TrEMBL record:
SUPFAM superfamilies, per database record: Class I glutamine amidotransferase-like
Pfam families: SNO (PF01174)
Subunit relationships: In the presence of PdxS, forms a dodecamer of heterodimers. Only shows activity in the heterodimer.
Catalysed reactions listed for this entry: L-glutamine + H2O = L-glutamate + NH4(+); aldehydo-D-ribose 5-phosphate + D-glyceraldehyde 3-phosphate + L-glutamine = pyridoxal 5'-phosphate + L-glutamate + phosphate + 3 H2O + H(+)
Residues binding L-glutamine: G51, E52, S53, R112, I141, R142
Protein name (Swiss-Prot/TrEMBL): Pyridoxal 5'-phosphate synthase subunit PdxT
Species per Swiss-Prot/TrEMBL record: Prauserella marina
HAMAP family given in the database record: PdxT
């Protein structure tokens, strides 16, 4: 029997919702925007897009999604966070706001806007563990990096040591812990759906 298409939600409070939905469809899933608790209860996995983690944290409260989302993550809901999504999933964010909520689904400490204030955006080809077909072109936009990762966290990619990378060389920018995946960059923007395929695979396995 062919596997049924997993239904993957995209948290639709802010950010690159349409782009993630398009990539998920391309990668073999059915994408569903999630703004309500009922929608959250219908999905097999959830993408948390980039945007502004402080704003998304506030909107999670406004839409009464914070506690239901925490509960589903604690039950093992597969999740993929890019950029601000990675920040939200982390247990701690440095250079965040005092009142910013953490979903605590990843045993990592991230630093917001880590690539420096001048460097609004930065692009680099990355070798990502688990992706076949060569390096992935990664676009970083006011991106975080992972400053500390617990023993249960698998590092999938680091910034290579190039001239452009400068002080960001070797920083951790893609991780996986169980069914939770996160990238500091925006794989929804480059037309290469391999990261989304990896996530769809995680959802199908789970
Ligand atoms: N700097 C943003 C934050 O702190 C993240 C940027 C992004 O998602 N592109 O939430």
């Amino acid at each position: 029997m062919p596997k049924t298409k997993p239904v993957i939600g995209v948290l639709a409070l802010q950010g690159d919702v349409r782009e993630h939905a398009a990539m998920l469809e391309k990668a073999g899933a059915r994408a569903l925007p999630v703004r309500r608790e009922r929608e959250l209860s219908e999905v097999d996995g959830l993408v948390l897009p980039g945007g502004e983690s402080t704003t998304m944290s506030r909107l999670l409260e406004t839409f009464e999604l914070l506690d239901p989302l925490r509960a589903r993550l604690a039950e093992g809901l597969p999740a993929f966070g890019s950029c601000a999504g990675m920040i939200l999933l982390a247990r701690q964010a440095l250079d965040g706001r005092q009142d910013q909520h953490q979903l605590d689904a990843l045993d990592v400490v991230v630093r917001r806007n880590a690539f420096g204030r001048q460097v609004d955006s930065f692009e680099e080809d990355l070798d990502v563990e688990g992706l076949e077909g060569g390096p992935l072109h990664a676009v970083f936009i006011r991106a975080p990096w992972v400053e500390k990762a617990g023993a249960g966290v698998r590092v999938l990619a680091r910034v290579p040591r190039t001239e452009a990378a400068g002080a960001a060389a070797d920083r951790i920018v893609a991780i996986r812990q169980g069914a939770v995946l996160a990238t500091a960059f925006h794989p929804e923007l480059t037309g290469d759906e391999r990261v989304h395929r990896l996530f769809v695979g995680i959802v199908q396995e789970t």
